[in-house]
Amino acid sequence: MALMGIETVRPAQWIRDNRSALPSIIALALVAAFWVVGAIGGIGFLAEASSPMTMLVGLYAGLSAVAVSIIVAILALNDLAGRYTRPRTRR
Q1: Among 10, 30, 48, 50, which is most buried by a count of CB atoms within 10 Å?
Q2: What angle do the packed helices 22-40 and 52-85 form, to 10 degrees?
Q3: Residue 79 burial (10 A CB sphere; 0-12, 13-18, 19+)
Q4: What is the reported pTM?
Q5: Domain segments of the chain as ranges
Q6: Buried (b) or exposed (e) across 21-58, using 16+ Cβ within 10 A?
Q7: How many CA atoms lie within 13 A of 70 on its CB side?
Q8: Residue from 40, 25, 8, 21 nearest 84 by CA
Q9: pLDDT, averaged across the chain
Q10: Apex CA 31: angle with CA 30 and CA 36, to 5°?
């Protein structure tokens, strides 16, 4: 593809060049994994709750986890958008 002007970058080289973006990328991956596990049925344990208080505490814990995951995703996306929309300086 080098003949067409498209250079392929090896993953190790990309990671070295974008090392400062890795925390945001990892945070987005963890949030995505959290939502996938939740969608598959991670909340099914509340159906077998032994008391209403156990179910209520589980629901509040789930609600707080969802709120934190949304905040983390917004912060990570904001960081990545700001990082990659800045004009790049030539080396």
Answers
A1: 30
A2: 150
A3: middle
A4: 0.73
A5: 20-85
A6: beebeebbeebeebeeeeeeeeeeeeeeeeeeeeeeee
A7: 5
A8: 21
A9: 83
A10: 95
